[in-house]
Design goal:
By secondary structure, the chain is an alpha+beta fold. The protein has one domain. The chain contains 3 helices and 6 strands, in the order ααβββαβββ. A 6-stranded mixed sheet has the order 1-2-3-4-5-6, sandwiched between helices. α1 packs across α2.
Length: 187
């Protein structure tokens, strides 16, 4: 775990930022796709809480759509790296390729999103839910290899009124104790 943050602090940071996002979405006519939602969350709600003067993390510890090592037995085409929605690095200004003495994951947290968006395209709900379950499975398998890595799988339903955000917290290969993020169901 980072010198700066323990699991309880990390959960509080992410879940309170998600709740703030949910309240924002419920009170504004915001429209966008998953990528825009990740950016709104990261820059509008997470970073203001996480970085000085309110928090203890450096802005360069946050990265959107960046690579992490892929599980060696994942999928049909074995790729060395996989791109993830939002990463919080253990240290400022590092990447997946930064050489580190500690063999622990360079990431402190991986946050994966799936969303049913509100831009007028009827999405395949069952397919999105399967993809979300796939994210949880990837996080289970990946966190099992790194005891200090936290995973968060977020399912956003922007088609509901009010919008809902459900967060599944994964650690050490298991779904952690239930957490809450607004009115959305969690596991």
């Amino acid at each position: 775990m980072s010198d700066q943050m323990n699991f309880a602090d990390l959960d509080a940071l992410i879940l309170s930022s998600l709740d703030e996002l949910r309240l924002y979405l419920a009170s504004h006519d915001w429209r966008g796709r998953e990528n825009e939602l990740v950016n709104l969350f990261a820059f509008g709600h997470l970073l203001p809480r996480a970085c000085p003067p309110n928090g203890m993390l450096d802005p360069t510890q946050f990265a959107i759509e960046v690579a992490l090592p892929q599980l060696p037995d994942w999928g049909k085409s074995p790729k060395r790296d996989v791109r993830k929605d939002l990463i919080i690095w253990r240290e400022p200004r590092i990447t997946n390729w930064t050489k580190r003495e500690n063999k622990e994951s360079a990431a402190l947290a991986v946050i994966e999103w799936k969303s049913l968006n509100n831009i007028g395209i009827k999405e395949r709900v069952a397919a999105k839910k399967r993809e979300h379950e796939g994210d949880i499975d990837w996080l289970r398998r990946t966190t099992a290899r790194s005891a200090s890595l936290s995973g968060y799988a977020i399912f956003a339903d922007l088609t509901s009124s009010p919008p809902t955000l459900a967060c599944t917290v994964v650690r050490s290969g298991e779904v952690a104790k239930p957490a809450t993020a607004g009115r959305g169901a969690t596991r």
